[in-house]
């Protein structure tokens, strides 16, 4: 267990010092000003966000910002890169994010009763975007979304085509 924790710590340290990542310069500057190692600054920031999500004002805004800002930034990078793999990763994230948002809308009444909801949702969002082989958006897509899509896409495509034909007929009549 201690060895696994050390591996995670080393991987996190490498990521926090990776100059190609947007947070490296911010953490480097904070490290210079405070004299604290950037790993501890990062862990402290995570702890503050966690406490904020449980007790703070505008926890929903903080949680949704975590689930949107970094993925949006990385999606723009993916669009600008020539690598198809990162495009697929972030498109998968947004599909799962959208499905979760729709389900969440209908479960809104339950959210009010659950005090740790925003913290758990934030952890879930981070799991959806985490850059590992156990990436949440890929897991959910492969195990739930894709099988459902493959089973029903023919009916959905037919319905969309019929709707498109109806719209075309209506717009032709009005012209």
Structure report:
- With 175 residues, the chain is an all-alpha fold.
- It has one domain (2-174).
- The chain is built from eight helices and no strands.
- The protein is elongated and about 70 Å long.
- 10% of the residues are buried.
Number of helices: 8
Choose one word for the global shape: elongated
Question: Mean of residue pLDDT?
Answer: 87
How many strand elements?
0
Which residue ranges are poorly predicted, with pLDDT under 50 across at least 5 consecutive positions? none
Give the topology string: H per helix, E per strand. HHHHHHHH
Q: How many separate domains make up the residues?
A: 1
Query: Span from first to last CA?
Result: 71 Å
Radius of gyration: 21 Å
For this entry, give a set of tags.
mainly alpha, about 180 residues, single chain, 8 helices
Give a nutshell description of this structure.
With 175 residues, the protein is an all-alpha fold.
Summarize the helices and strands and which ones pair or pack.
Elements: H1 2-17, H2 23-34, H3 38-55, H4 59-80, H5 84-106, H6 108-111, H7 117-129, H8 136-174
Helix pairs in contact: 3-4, 3-7, 4-5, 4-7, 5-8
